[in-house]
Amino acid sequence: MQTQPVSIFERAFKKLVPGGLEGSNRRETDIMSISADLSDADIATVKTWVDDCLAEKGGQVDARNRAVLLGRAYLKLSDLGKIRFLGLLADQYGVAEASVESAIEQWHNAPGNQKTEAAQKLRKTLEPSRTTLLKHFNGVPSGVKFLVDLRDELLTFCKEHPSLKPLETDLKDLLSTWFDVGLLQLEEIDWNTSASMLEKLIAYEAVHAIKSWNDLKNRLDYDRRCYAFIHPSMPDEPLIFVEVALVDGLAGNVQKILDEDAPNLDPANADTAIFYSISNAQRGLTGISFGNFLIKQVVQKLRDEFPQLKQFATLSPIPGFRKWLEAAEPETLRQLPGGEQWLSYPPPRDPVQADTEASNGQREVIIRLAASYLTARRPNSERALDPVAHFHLSNGAQIARLNWMADTSDKGLAQSAGLMVNYLYELPKIVHRSEQYTSGGVISQSSAIRKLLK
């Protein structure tokens, strides 16, 4: 998910690079004139430029200026050119093995009073030289966003080019340090927030697509709340955001929440906060988790503003349920509550058709199978099979209630067979449940869910 990284980075470049630096000599012209597919001659040009950045000729300011030009050159490349560019960094700018071996020997031979200094030298030699290059972008406007988008591309390229994985790992480690949750700011998003930020909410919404400005305005109405984590180096970019509905009791239908014509509830009369959409906005931060901190901070904000709230829960999709049900072997289904009955129905068995036309008995069968799916584990793991379930269970939630015909959108029917689930966050029990799940795979279930599994 990228939001015009070229224009953003070029604007940053114009602000940063001193007048006359770009094209002021032949080598600077060469780096901006490389071909889109990056020929062998162009690779040599890039390597010389990278070497100059690492040597910090002219000091750190010039090194950062060179990094900006390097970034601009990268953005003009084709996918083939980018893969060749990144391959150069992965292959030739890793750890210097000879330096590491020498540092290890020095550490072994260092007397006691010099051991610490030798260890520090060893630690420094273990850092790939490309990391120094990447760090230069932290000091330029929009440079961090450039690296986030760069990792987004790396995650895609690594699927067919595993040799790029060490570079992707180095970049992830670097971003993990820069995006520590203590550095993030929780901001409330409302209708008065900047238009550019609101546009990004529309673009990044990953659970229930925002169809129009009126749809967005409804989601930001006075009985709703929206919060996002923001990083100081990316002030115009949400990292992750959550949409909240203030309601009376557990919500069981997302179409009702999203209905623009539905009457508003006075927030003072609400007893429940429903988290109905949580969207990670930056694919380049995949694997760097701060969603659990977002939920906890939002809960605290809501409690401060609405002390009468008694429940905090989600209304979540079950994105893998229909695919799992259709792919499950008959032997597997027969061992599950409701499985034998499901197999007794004549094929083709369509859970979506059952959603719309089923008798109460068929509904019960599908709901029981959904309960089995939500409590299933990945092979050879104690982790929940469903990714959304894993996220909330690891955060300390309980699987509380399954809801029939809760999302009748095309996406909801295709992925979840129309079902949605409430994950309940009971504040005094969050830490204990999180520890039970992460250390022992214990999945907290309400009595209603346990009954479905009998």
TrEMBL record:
Any single GO BP term: fatty acid biosynthetic process
InterPro entries, A to Z: Malonyl_CoA_deC, Malonyl_CoA_deC_C, Malonyl_CoA_deC_C_sf, MCD_N, MCD_N_sf
GO terms assigned for molecular function: malonyl-CoA decarboxylase activity
Residue stretches making up the Malonyl-CoA decarboxylase N-terminal domain: 93-179
Coiled-coil intervals, chain numbering: none
Domain Malonyl-CoA decarboxylase C-terminal: 182-426
Gene3D superfamilies hit by this protein: Malonyl-CoA decarboxylase, catalytic domain, Malonyl-CoA decarboxylase, oligemerization domain
A Pfam family this chain is assigned to: MCD_N
Name of this chain's protein: Malonyl-CoA decarboxylase
